[in-house]
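Private note to self, pasted from the team thread so I don't lose it. Backbone tokens:
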């Protein structure tokens, strides 16, 4: 059995194990992260950023709500757990702060606040694999779009402290920085994506921004998702706001070979799903054991499609049906136990597990409402792109 066939089998066996209870204030679930397990334990927590400006933390197995942090003065853009401490979670806010929360504490107060410079509006962030550096990306203000960096050390024993930035990169993007992703194992490598179409790879150990910029890849569109892939994670890929896909091999930079592995202008046109369509892309995931990159997409009716990537093109692997009732916005795939978490515009957080049996069957009705529509993630216009699609 090939690696893709095995994953097809795993996907086909996924069933809904748990649904989160509907909140009193239903909201879109925009981003999901799971805590990193401590030694032999399984991960304990799930964090979700919501369109109502709250961060919710759930029990990983039961999806019972444990904490809700709602004291955000702006729109939230992402949640990330620390790597070394599974009870510490971070969130970035459009008011120019990244906040750190400790799930163990019954308080609405952040244990630490990382403040940006005046006029910074953060719309992306990440923390590196050793929990040493936090980076956030800003919307463009006048002519500037910044990558802002902080020292994150000592985060759990500096309650209430506000940290100022270490510095910024300001020359490499000329529009909103929509996504940031540190390398999974090399603490000094980071990739950023922007509405300017560029996907930039940096080595932050270098003394200045010019030297730090290792590679600039042009997607020719507005970047909505980025990630690392390949053995030793030497490849980067991106998904665009108009459902395009680009994939590059950074290891080829010093060779005569092209670094572009695949470029698909519109994934919706190139992936044919039997008896269904593909309306949008949610993001991607590199499966280490299978050495395979996958994309997740969906339909407006809530179906979720898994798509396999190869240098020859894209091919559908399987579909999850009957979970969500409308657009799916976020996911987190746990390769350790082959489980999948998904969140959407129906205000539902779902836990899918192999051969699971849901105790209360029945698809929940859509919670989509006019007030939530107004809180959608900003739709980035592409008028400022360096090159237009034909």
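Design output:
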């Amino acid at each position: 059995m090939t690696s893709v066939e095995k994953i097809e089998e795993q996907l086909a066996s996924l069933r809904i194990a748990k649904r989160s209870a509907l909140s009193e204030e239903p909201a879109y679930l925009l981003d999901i992260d799971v805590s990193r397990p401590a030694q032999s334990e399984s991960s304990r927590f799930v964090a979700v950023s919501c369109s109502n400006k709250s961060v919710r933390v759930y029990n990983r197995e039961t999806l019972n709500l444990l904490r809700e942090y709602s004291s955000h003065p702006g729109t939230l853009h992402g949640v990330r757990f620390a790597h070394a401490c599974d009870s510490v979670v971070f969130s970035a806010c459009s008011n120019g702060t990244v906040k750190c929360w400790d799930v163990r504490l019954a308080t609405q107060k952040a244990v630490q606040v990382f403040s940006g410079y005046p006029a910074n509006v953060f719309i992306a962030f990440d923390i590196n694999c050793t929990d040493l550096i936090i980076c956030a990306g800003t919307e463009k203000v006048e002519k500037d779009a910044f990558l802002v960096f902080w020292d994150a050390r000592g985060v759990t024993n500096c309650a209430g402290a506000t940290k100022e930035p270490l510095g910024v990169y300001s020359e490499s993007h000329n529009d909103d920085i929509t996504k940031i992703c540190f390398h999974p194992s090399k603490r000094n490598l980071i990739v950023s994506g922007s509405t300017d179409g560029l996907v930039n790879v940096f080595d932050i150990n270098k003394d200045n921004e010019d030297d730090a910029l290792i590679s600039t890849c042009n997607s020719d569109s507005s970047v909505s998702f980025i990630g690392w892939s390949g053995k030793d994670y030497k490849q980067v890929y991106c998904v665009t706001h108009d459902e395009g896909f680009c994939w590059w091999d950074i290891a080829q930079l010093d060779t005569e070979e092209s670094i572009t592995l695949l470029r698909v202008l519109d994934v919706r046109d190139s992936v044919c799903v039997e008896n269904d369509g593909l309306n949008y892309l949610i993001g991607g995931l590199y499966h280490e054991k299978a050495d395979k990159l996958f994309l997740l997409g969906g339909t407006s009716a809530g179906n979720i499609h898994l798509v396999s990537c190869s240098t020859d093109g894209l091919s559908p692997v399987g579909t999850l049906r009957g979970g969500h009732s409308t657009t799916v916005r976020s996911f987190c795939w746990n390769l350790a136990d082959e489980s999948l978490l998904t969140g959407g515009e129906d205000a539902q957080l779902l836990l899918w597990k192999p051969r699971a049996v849901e105790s209360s069957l029945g698809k929940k009705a859509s919670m989509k409402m006019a007030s939530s529509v107004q809180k959608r993630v900003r739709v980035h216009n592409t008028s400022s792109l360096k090159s237009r699609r034909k």
